[in-house]
Amino acid sequence: MDIVLIAGLWFDGSVWDEVVPELTALGHRPLPLTLPGQGDGTASATLGDQLAAVLAAIDATPGKPLVVGHSAAATLAWLAADARPGKVAEVALVGGFPSDDGRPYADDFAAEGGLVPFPGWAPFDGPETADLDQPTRDRLASIAVPVPEAVTKGIVHFTDERRFDIPTLIVCPEFTPTQAQHWIATGESSELARATRLDYANLDSGHWPMASCPRELARVLAEAANS
Fold first, then answer.
1. Which residues cross the membrane (predicted)?
2. What tens digit of pLDDT does each residue of 67-80 get?
């Protein structure tokens, strides 16, 4: 199966470099995306531009792909499912939940001159980074790129309720499936609360499993693609 891989803030398609060969060895075709404004040098990109790039990748596949969104890009994957409910086989959300309709995409970090730079590791101290050794932190920081403020402050809009019937896998890295189920049940994600086909997978890692446990992440994604 084709597997569209969408990184969260600050990272381009290269952040999946260690996952790609593992998925390939498991018989799938990974498609890591470098989004407009997030590694392609386009500082003026918008959330709409990023969604258009994801939809173009989905439309180019011969069948129905698994669409994977990491962290903030959980929202981008969900937007793609909303825009292509008949073309997406399944959605996998790694370490993130979709934003609610009418909310900004990801405006938690400060902008400087129209760009939101990688803030360093201090804001993520704790379970999110506990599994990252210093060389891995250094490597990730070296490939991080500022994200256009127009992306992070783009307003999320959904239009097709068929998205709720698409099988959705919640991949739980720095939190557990039990925690995720509780958060959804108590209103942390009004979108996922309406999803009819939710499954959960525990990774027991930090927030960037593509860097700290790529083989385990690939296995989880391959199992979803095979289901």
1. none
2. 999 999 999 999 99
Answer for the pair 32, 13: CB distance below 8 angstroms, yes or no. Answer: yes
Closest Cα to residue 145, out of 7, 49, 9?
Answer: 9
Q: How many CB atoms lie within 10 A of CB 133?
A: 10
Over 80: is that where the pLDDT of 41 sits? no
Report the chain's mean pLDDT, rounded to a whole number. 96
Rounded Cα gap, residues 19 and 64, in angstroms: 20
Q: 2-226: CATH homologous superfamily?
A: Alpha/Beta hydrolase fold, catalytic domain (3.40.50.1820)
Q: How many CB atoms within 10 Å of residue 114?
A: 11
Report the distance separating Cα 51 and Cα 57, nearest Å.
Answer: 10
**In the sheet that 90-94 helps form, which strands lie side by side, from edge to edge?**
29-32, 2-6, 66-70, 90-94, 168-172, 198-202
For residues 6 and 198, is the Cβ–Cβ distance under 8 A?
no
- Whether this model's pTM surpasses 0.90: yes
Closest CA to 191 of 213, 171, 168: 168
Q: Which of 73, 105, 117, 112 is nearest to 91 (CA)?
A: 73
